[in-house]
UniProtKB/TrEMBL annotation:
<protein>
    <submittedName>
        <fullName>GntR family transcriptional regulator</fullName>
    </submittedName>
</protein>
<dbReference type="InterPro" id="IPR000524">
    <property type="entry name" value="Tscrpt_reg_HTH_GntR"/>
</dbReference>
<feature type="domain" description="HTH gntR-type">
    <location>
        <begin position="14"/>
        <end position="82"/>
    </location>
</feature>
<keyword id="KW-0804">Transcription</keyword>
<dbReference type="InterPro" id="IPR036390">
    <property type="entry name" value="WH_DNA-bd_sf"/>
</dbReference>
<keyword id="KW-0805">Transcription regulation</keyword>
<dbReference type="Pfam" id="PF00392">
    <property type="entry name" value="GntR"/>
</dbReference>
<keyword id="KW-0238">DNA-binding</keyword>
<dbReference type="GO" id="GO:0003700">
    <property type="term" value="F:DNA-binding transcription factor activity"/>
</dbReference>
<dbReference type="InterPro" id="IPR036388">
    <property type="entry name" value="WH-like_DNA-bd_sf"/>
</dbReference>
<dbReference type="GO" id="GO:0003677">
    <property type="term" value="F:DNA binding"/>
</dbReference>
Length: 122
């Protein structure tokens, strides 16, 4: 199973577990991970992201507490509900883009120029 598109930037000041949690919320609210979707195991997602398993486990636990995820022995971790506090899809996409742009070392100006170029079709 491949991991959802999540990018963690350890230098942005937000705890890695929180970045994972927030990006999962955006992926779920945006329909990329619909209800019933099976998530990667904690170990697999941690390995894919280069994080400690406890970091991913905390993100999953937080979402379980909120009722967004459920975990069972045979089914693994599954999306159970839409987050009640989910951002709008455009905001979620923008946040994900910013995280990727930062991970690539792009400045704010470079990131905005890239968006403008694609928006106007250049």
């Amino acid at each position: 199973m491949s991991a959802p598109r999540i990018v963690v930037d350890v230098d942005n000041g937000v705890a890695p577990w929180r970045q994972v949690r927030d990006q999962l919320v955006r992926l779920i609210s945006g329909g990329v991970l619909p209800i019933g979707s099976r998530l990667p195991t904690i170990r697999q997602l941690a390995a894919d992201l280069g994080l400690a398993a406890g970091t991913v486990a905390r993100a999953y636990r937080e979402l379980e507490t909120e009722g967004v995820l459920t975990t069972g022995r045979r089914q693994g971790t599954v999306v159970a509900a839409l987050p009640s506090h989910a951002p709008d899809p455009l905001s979620a996409a923008a946040a994900e883009y910013v995280a990727v742009a930062r991970s690539l070392g792009a400045s704010e100006g470079e990131a905005l120029n890239a968006v403008r170029a694609h928006y106007v079709g250049e």
